[in-house]
Amino acid sequence: MKILEHRALRGPNYYSRYLTIFMRLDIEALEERPSDQVPGIARRLKDLMPGIYEHRCSVGELGGFLQRVERGTYAGHMVEHVAIELQNMIGFSVGYGKTVDSYETGVYNVVYRYRDEATGLAAGVEAVDIVQKLYDGETVDLDPVIARLKAVREAHMLGPSTAAIVEAATARGIPYYRLSEETSYIQLGHGHKQRRFQATVTDGTGIIGHGIADDKDWTKQILGDAGIPVPLGRICHSFEDAVAAAEEIGYPLATKPLVGNHGRGVSTDINDEKALREGYDAALARYETVVVEQFVRGEDHRLLVIGGKLVAAARRRPAHVVGNGSSTLKELIDAENADPRRGVGHENLLTQIHIDEQTERLVSQADLTMDSVIDKDAIVWLKSTANLSTGGTATDLTDDVHPEVKYAAERIARLIGLDIIGIDLLAETLTRPLEEQSAGVVEVNAGPGFRMHIAPTHGQGRDVGKHVVDMLFGENEVDNGRVPIVAITGTNGKTTTTRLVSHLLRTAGRKVGMACTGTIEIDNHVIMRGDYSGPQAASVVLKEPVVENAVLEVARGGILRRGLGFDQCDVGILLNIASDHLGERDIHTLDELARCKTVVVDAVSPEGTCVLNADDPRVLDQGTRWSRGKIVYFTMDPEFEPVKNHVAEHGIAFTVRDGKIVMRQGAVEATVIEVNDVPITFEGHAPFNVQNAMAAAAAGYALGLTLGDIKMGLQTFHPTPGQLPGRVNYVEADGVRCLIDYGHNVPALKALAPLVQSLGQKKRIAVASAPGNRRDEDLRALGSQIASMHDALFICEPDPRGRTPGEAASLLKAGADAEANCRSEIVLDEYGAVEKAMDAASEGDLLVLLVDDIESAIERLKGRTFRNPVPAAE
């Protein structure tokens, strides 16, 4: 088998609303061997992966997929299910998958859900190898496969603290973006509502408070001055300083690096100069300055304060083992590490205990070795500090915190100035005020770990991630961090409608992020130029901190390659379905193209609005079928029965009556604007832009604009290169009219024909091209359509797109030559073709430039002098 394509679809897509992996798989010779021709393959698969019995598949019952294998299915279908089960085996719960054949024999499109993108892709590769071996009768060793996938998971998965916040946000409907694969830098929400954090440090964490927490001596000075109990201590720059500090403070002592975290380099219960030397060196290895301080006897506690409130408390104990009277210390450690709750790093609830210099020092101080047999019930401490990252354990004590201890913790958060703070407190108990016992705050942590609170070794886990989300977005759970998203798709008119919706919103005073074919614009400033009608552009807009509304053009290619790039939208506009790009990426029919386009309306939130062109039969049929949320129709025919019925049921529709765009609902009809007052309609001679105007008006109304706002926006949006570059731009130069447009398919040109007819009273001269990735028949049909509208045609070819130079132009000319009334000529260079067209034009003629380089064409028009027409011979 051979993987032809393999990528993640990041959002609703042609196959699913879920995040899915797409694999285009050529099963080659296995096309001739369905699974029922491979004896015992179902049994071997079940023995290898017992969990695959849970896969119901289309049968709809346990063991359903295995029944399919026994009856006979294809290798691609098996790859789908194996990829799903591999992810389940390493802790990612996924279930959705689909395998469909393509237009190529033996080639299948395999899709399956993922939680982590890198792991999902890796699972697909492993699945292909496993299924191939099952077909070939080879032995499959699953252990190294699982190990490799776990390694990928560990390299890419979020840490437990970050994941807890993300999960809490997701549960509240707040979207998130991972802003860096290397770090846990996360954006919650969109645009101006977004909040960002890394691990447990938020964009609201005070930099001064962070600096205080990072400096243990500064922390103690601030807390001590405020009456908070802290251990006596000194900063030491040499071992001689440490010895002097020990003499001044008195044993027992603790040593730690001045700047550090996770208990690294910390030594406790130091009782002599030899141990002091070891502790000093351990701290010095972590930071150049060492703190020597009084060792406070008591249990190690962590108090977690979020948003000024104590939300969790835990007692931590260092890594240790308990003797049984027969096992050696090494055997006890190995047995503890065999606990399934212990894993590598943050893999599991607990961390493996590693024997290091600190462990060896503690064991030596206890007069033990690794071969010592430990007495029954005797405790051997293996680490000085109680951090979970070094193998420690935690017990939840949140419900046992005395009110005075709670107040002290919340006061410490205010004194240090941190929105999220972990307070390390040595105390005999949390059930009594600190002044009534031996107690002291040994340090505070900016960006504290949450694992001990989320999943303590003993006691109740606390949903501390929710407290962070409530702090960032408010506790009422109304704010989901989203800005309204308008997504616009269709075969033609996407860019015009995108720009028009953006203009309506900006005119009404909103800060808009817009992405379309041509640019990405933020608050009316162009920040990127190019084709930005895909998911990457959506991501750029939604990450921009000032954006209040996002307006996104969505092209077919982006949907198929990567999905939408957002999980849902508030308004989805489906303009039309017409022949274009057929034959690409297994989209060969208009019904398949319609299903691709309806991904946009299928992604509308249940509270959102789908805006549908009722004049297009496929939009009316499939768009209505796949739409979620409310439906608003637009139509040029005010008497169209389906729309009249929709309005009668108090649905909303926009239509044209008596030369006016009107909104109808129930018995109400409200005038929006005279068609003649909408510049892009060319006084109604551009009916396609009347439709685009109605679609934009419907979107604006769905987003809360008044009819007055909509009218103002429509009448101030002009078909100029400044407001609508390359889309029906009208320019006059020295008596010659010029229409510049980007139409590159037959439906677009048919829609443009009435306007060309109305403007061109004398000769109509065109320059046109088409991307080479269209089908031969599409290129010939396009040439014929252009020629039927013009008297002269100059054909250029700026982008062959995989064809040999001149091939696409020749196909266009072949179609044009079928029209006897048009003279056609190939001039491959676009610049040269425009020059020839201008040379052929006289005063009163119409130039129609269907070109890519719009700015160059306009500049040349402005400086051009056209000749007077030659009088006809009498």
From TrEMBL:
<comment type="similarity">
    <text>In the C-terminal section; belongs to the MurCDEF family.</text>
</comment>
<dbReference type="InterPro" id="IPR018109">
    <property type="entry name" value="Folylpolyglutamate_synth_CS"/>
</dbReference>
<dbReference type="InterPro" id="IPR013221">
    <property type="entry name" value="Mur_ligase_cen"/>
</dbReference>
<dbReference type="GO" id="GO:0071160">
    <property type="term" value="F:cyanophycin synthetase activity (L-aspartate-adding)"/>
</dbReference>
<dbReference type="InterPro" id="IPR011810">
    <property type="entry name" value="Cya_phycin_syn"/>
</dbReference>
<comment type="function">
    <text>Catalyzes the ATP-dependent polymerization of arginine and aspartate to multi-L-arginyl-poly-L-aspartic acid (cyanophycin; a water-insoluble reserve polymer).</text>
</comment>
<dbReference type="GO" id="GO:0046872">
    <property type="term" value="F:metal ion binding"/>
</dbReference>
<dbReference type="Pfam" id="PF18921">
    <property type="entry name" value="Cyanophycin_syn"/>
</dbReference>
<dbReference type="InterPro" id="IPR013815">
    <property type="entry name" value="ATP_grasp_subdomain_1"/>
</dbReference>
<keyword id="KW-0067">ATP-binding</keyword>
<dbReference type="Pfam" id="PF13549">
    <property type="entry name" value="ATP-grasp_5"/>
</dbReference>
<dbReference type="InterPro" id="IPR036615">
    <property type="entry name" value="Mur_ligase_C_dom_sf"/>
</dbReference>
<dbReference type="Pfam" id="PF02875">
    <property type="entry name" value="Mur_ligase_C"/>
</dbReference>
<dbReference type="Pfam" id="PF08245">
    <property type="entry name" value="Mur_ligase_M"/>
</dbReference>
<comment type="subunit">
    <text>Homodimer.</text>
</comment>
<keyword id="KW-0547">Nucleotide-binding</keyword>
<keyword id="KW-0436">Ligase</keyword>
<dbReference type="InterPro" id="IPR011761">
    <property type="entry name" value="ATP-grasp"/>
</dbReference>
<dbReference type="GO" id="GO:0004326">
    <property type="term" value="F:tetrahydrofolylpolyglutamate synthase activity"/>
</dbReference>
<dbReference type="InterPro" id="IPR004101">
    <property type="entry name" value="Mur_ligase_C"/>
</dbReference>
<protein>
    <recommendedName>
        <fullName>Cyanophycin synthetase</fullName>
        <ecNumber>6.3.2.29</ecNumber>
        <ecNumber>6.3.2.30</ecNumber>
    </recommendedName>
</protein>
<dbReference type="InterPro" id="IPR036565">
    <property type="entry name" value="Mur-like_cat_sf"/>
</dbReference>
<dbReference type="GO" id="GO:0005524">
    <property type="term" value="F:ATP binding"/>
</dbReference>
<feature type="domain" description="ATP-grasp">
    <location>
        <begin position="220"/>
        <end position="473"/>
    </location>
</feature>
<dbReference type="GO" id="GO:0071161">
    <property type="term" value="F:cyanophycin synthetase activity (L-arginine-adding)"/>
</dbReference>
<dbReference type="InterPro" id="IPR044019">
    <property type="entry name" value="Cyanophycin_syn_N"/>
</dbReference>
